[in-house]
Design goal:
The protein is of the alpha/beta class and 332 residues long. The chain has two domains: 11-239, Spore Coat Polysaccharide Biosynthesis Protein SpsA, Chain A, CATH 3.90.550; 243-312. The protein has twelve helices and seven strands. The protein has helices at 25-38, 57-67, 83-93, 112-119, 147-160, 180-187, 196-203, 225-239, 242-254, 256-271, 278-312, 328-331, and strands at residues 11-18, 43-50, 72-76, 98-101, 126-132, 172-179, 207-213. Strands 3-2-1-4-6-5-7 form a seven-stranded mixed beta sheet. Strand 1, helix 1 (25-38) and strand 2 form a beta-alpha-beta unit. Helix 5 (147-160) runs parallel beside helix 8 (225-239), helix 9 (242-254) packs antiparallel against helix 11 and helix 10 (256-271) runs antiparallel to helix 11. It is elongated.
């Protein structure tokens, strides 16, 4: 291993969830081991979280752990809890001063880890692996999907990058490198439904980017459009109150309809000397009633959003660096 370190950081942890990756897991571990030995760190570990795999992924990991004691570690969950809880379990078990997270399906090439760790030398606390298209067509297709899935991924990343207060960078996924203090803050969140990209954006700190091309694998189990949509809905509703804000905007915009109807009826009565018909008044009354109902629901939704934020018990702020509290008694 290379002797110098990134600052005073000595241990690198590579964390990855595993679910039915029997065909790829040996290659993934071998490539991670080769990459970790080339990284500018003193020591390393590979933490693999078996998320209730139904194939022989667990046995393959244990075999590799026996071949590389102390370097490959297995965290076995009791059943399939999903990608985000599996990542959280891996972060809880990781001991590194630097922690890299990535999927184990080899769409994110482990060789990119070297660039992420090297980028920390520039003073960053978080370095995102940012996807770029191999076809030279901008960000389109950077997700590694094609067709409708590529369009959905593109729209999702643009939407999440515009969430208020703490935007998630566009074209990034779970592939990132973090210093220990960032991981400690992430583990302090107590919410049950975890969306790590949102929490990483929430904690702040200085962030950098390292571009890479995602590898598409033809032998990978296909991801359905429904699965991607459900994952996007879970991410959006877990992380933000953007849908509620959108509903508030719709409720406010709906008042344009009765307003226009009222203006037309008043104009007819004043300038054309024509009394509004009972049908026109009924339509106006119905429009006003619908708008009042929408507005009431929007107000309720706004309070529900506030409750949503409060029950998560997220910290009001996170201190990056600060002086010690002054001794009040000494000042007196």
């Amino acid at each position: 291993m290379i002797g110098h370190t990134v600052g005073d950081l000595d241990l690198l942890s590579i964390v990855s969830p595993v679910y039915n990756e029997e065909r790829h897991i040996d290659e993934f571990i071998d490539r991670c081991l080769a990459v970790a030995r080339r990284c500018p760190v003193g020591q390393f570990e590979i933490v693999l979280v078996d998320d209730g795999s139904q194939d022989r992924s667990r046995d393959r990991i244990l075999s590799k752990a026996a071949d590389h004691p102390g370097l490959v570690r297995l965290v076995e969950l009791s059943r399939n809890f999903g990608q985000q809880p599996a990542y959280h379990a891996g972060l809880s078990s990781a001991r590194g001063d630097i922690v890299v997270t990535l999927d184990s399906d080899l769409q994110d090439p482990p060789e990119t880890i070297i660039g992420l760790v090297e980028k920390l030398k520039d003073g960053f606390d978080i370095v995102y692996a940012r996807r770029v298209s191999a076809r030279g067509s901008g960000r389109w297709g950077a997700s590694g999907h094609t067709g409708l899935k590529a369009l959905g991924a593109f729209v999702f990343h643009r939407l999440m990058s515009r969430v208020r207060t703490h935007q998630i960078p566009a074209d990034v996924g779970e592939f990132r490198c973090m210093r220990r203090r960032v991981v400690e803050h992430l583990l302090n969140f107590s919410e049950s439904m975890v969306f790590l990209p949102g929490l990483v954006a929430y904690v702040g700190f200085r962030t950098g980017f390292h571009d890479y091309v995602r590898q598409r694998r033809s032998d990978r189990a296909p991801t359905t459009v429904r699965g991607l949509v459900m994952r996007a809905v879970d991410a959006l509703t877990t992380f933000s109150i953007t849908p509620i804000v959108l509903f508030l905007a719709i409720a406010a915009a709906a008042w344009v309809v009765p307003l226009l109807i009222g203006v037309v009826l008043v104009a007819q009565a004043v300038f054309a000397r024509r009394q509004p018909s009972l049908m026109a008044l009924a339509v106006l009354a119905s429009a006003v009633a619908w708008c009042v109902t929408l507005s009431a629901l929007a107000v309720v939704a706004h309070y529900v959003g506030r409750i949503f934020i409060e029950v998560k018990r997220r910290p009001r702020y996170i201190v990056k660096e600060g002086a010690e509290k002054p001794d009040v008694a000494a000042e007196r």
